[in-house]
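Predict structure. Chain length: 179.
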Amino acid sequence: MPSGGHKGLSLFGHPWRWYWLALLVIGLDIATKVWAVEMFMQGPAMQIIPGLLQFTYAENYGAAFSFLADAGGWQRWFFGAIALGFSVMVIAWLWRLPAAKRWEPFALALILGGAIGNLWDRMLLGYVRDFISVYYGSWHFPVFNVADMAISVGAIMLVIELLFFSDKDGADTKKSAEV
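Prediction complete.
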């Protein structure tokens, strides 16, 4: 029995439910990227909220905010290896979490799904397809995708967990062990 205390590992029990959530994020990410390619690769952007939000098409050959986008191609494999290694680490992390935890594995599943969604693009195409553009006047936030949103939300959730709930979880675990 793994250290997380998994009894009767069902297909939708802990930790599998978190892997299913990651798979849902991957599927949603890939589906929306395919849609964006069909809609916006050759055509104009679609204004969602004029002056603030539009759907468009962009290819990101680098990492976040196009970091190292013009590095000559080696970054594809470098960022791919990092994403793969990180994904394996998160899969193991999810497996070891106690079944009672909800917030932390939810956050990790979002991050895992986003990382694999972008890894899929990077390995298959050599770049990541982005299509969500937030802007105001002449200011433009870097174009992003569903995977990026999942990673960002998951990371924010982990920070919240660390800052506000990690001590509480440790105290609750200690109290339940004493009983």
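Summary: The beta strands are 46-49, 53-60, 128-136, 139-140.
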